[in-house]
Amino acid sequence: MEFDVFFSISQTPVDGVTPAEREMWDNFFKEVEAADALGYGTAWVAQSHLSTEIQKQHAHPVVPHWQGEIGLNTDILQLAASVFRRTQRIQIGSAVSNIVCNGGPIAHAERIAAFCSLHGMDPDERRRINIGFSAGRFEFMNRAYGITPRNPVEAAAWPALRGLIFAETCEIFLRLLRGDVLGSSDVRETVLTRENFRSDEDWDKVREAAGDMATSEVHIDRRWEFDVLQIVPREWRRDLLELVIGSHDPRLQVDVNQYMPVKVFNLSITQPDIIDATHARMADAFHPDGGAWQRRDMPRTVMVFLNAQSGLSSEQRTVAAKEEAKAALGAYWTALEGTLDPSKVERAANNAVIGNPQDVAAQIRERFHPDDRLMLWFDFFNHDADRVIANMEHFQGSVVPLLREL
Questions:
Q1: 225-260 tens-digit pLDDT
Q2: Strand (E) or helix (H) holding 2
Q3: Pairing of strands 91-98, 42-45
Q4: Coarse DSSP helix, strand, coil percentages of the chain, rounded to the nearest 5 percent
Q5: Which end of the chain has a smaller Cβ tally under 10 Å, C or N?
Q6: pLDDT digits over 189-213, tens only?
Q7: How many whole angstroms separate alpha carbon 84 and alpha carbon 123?
Q8: Alpha carbon of 400 to those of 22, 358, 394: distances in Å?
Q9: 61-104 pLDDT per residue, tens
Q10: Residue 337's pLDDT band (boundaries 50, 70, 90)?
Q11: What is residue 227's predicted lDDT score, i.e. its pLDDT?
Q12: Sheet holding 241-245, edge to edge
């Protein structure tokens, strides 16, 4: 089992106190330097764009109850450069980068190539940048970059069309990173059929908007139109880049692996049957350049509420950890009210590990496969950097030895 660390850098009030941005950054760098010294494998950092507070002024706010900012990291590449300068061993990952907004797939591919070119100047460099990428969770961020319906047909089809726009985006992004020369005419066409919609009613709305109720296909103009191009630099070390898709669409997970090896980013709320099905599917679909598919190729986020404080009995540590978890999870789900299915909320709480070191070790052993790769989320609604670091230390010093014994 491998252990990474997940950082949210979420500027939200805890016990009525919201740290300043400088304090948030200071906390993050202290924590990531500690994670490096403690031997954690990869620091996965949440990525977001634009102010969550300001979007509450919109006619249809996406997260109307969230206080503060969901995340301060808007550019994993700049952050990675800073982290690499401060650390010795730890790798960096984005969890996850939105490749639809902020310039789209061409801009993202070129920036990543430039980063890897500079990062790989030292021939002895072995630390990778792990790019988790997705279409973005919060649509207000995409809208600001023009990712909106362009006509009545797209408006009618939008819930289904968004996923197909992401598929088009992924193809461009991956082919450019691979080194292809291509124009938009070389990229897939987007064609809507009944299969893309949940009901006949939804499909009929699209056909009505298209002016042809008898058609079995509705063609959509490409979202990205561009002349033939190739990104530069070209001669960069692709061994320093790992790609991880943030999508549970089985077809897309398979589709992206026709271009390059692309792993799968996984959330703690995903159910075991979906996890097992993903592993089975990817064992066949993973791009051969990536070698044989392994369980570590789908890293899994896990919220950790660990209490190993001195002066407390084992029972008292368990009680204290449960109280911390209840407070943090309660604040989180209240902030996201209306954005998640309540059943998903309940499952997420069940997937947190909570208690003293013995409790946490037992829960990990019960819930996870020995070959899993866990992204441990210690800073969940916790701005106390010293406590976060102490929990990281207790996990490595107490929980990991217990797991080895078990």
A1: 999 999 999 999 999 999 999 998 999 999 999 999
A2: strand 2-7
A3: parallel
A4: 45, 15, 40
A5: C
A6: 999 999 999 999 999 999 999 999 9
A7: 15
A8: 33, 10, 9
A9: 888 888 999 999 999 999 999 999 999 999 999 999 999 999 99
A10: low
A11: 98
A12: 262-264, 241-245, 129-134, 91-98, 42-45, 2-7, 373-377, 300-306, 353-355
Residues 70, 72, 77: CA angle, nearest 5 degrees: 130
Nearest alpha carbon to residue 7 among 91, 73, 67:
73
* pTM for this model (two decimals): 0.94
Strands (E), 19-103: 42-45, 91-98
DSSP-assigned states of every residue in 130-148: EEEEES-S-HHHHHTTT-S
Tell me how long the chain is.
406
pLDDT in tens, 343-367: 655 665 567 999 999 999 999 999 9
Here the tokens at position 208 are: 């009505």
Sole residue written with tokens 């730890």: 90
Residue type, position 235, single letter? E
327 token code pair:
């407070």
How would you classify residue 317: left for phi > 0, otherwise alpha for psi between -120 and 50, otherwise beta? alpha
Output the CA–CA distances (angstroms, integers) from residue 283 to 130, 173, 244, 290, 369, in the order listed: 20, 23, 15, 11, 16
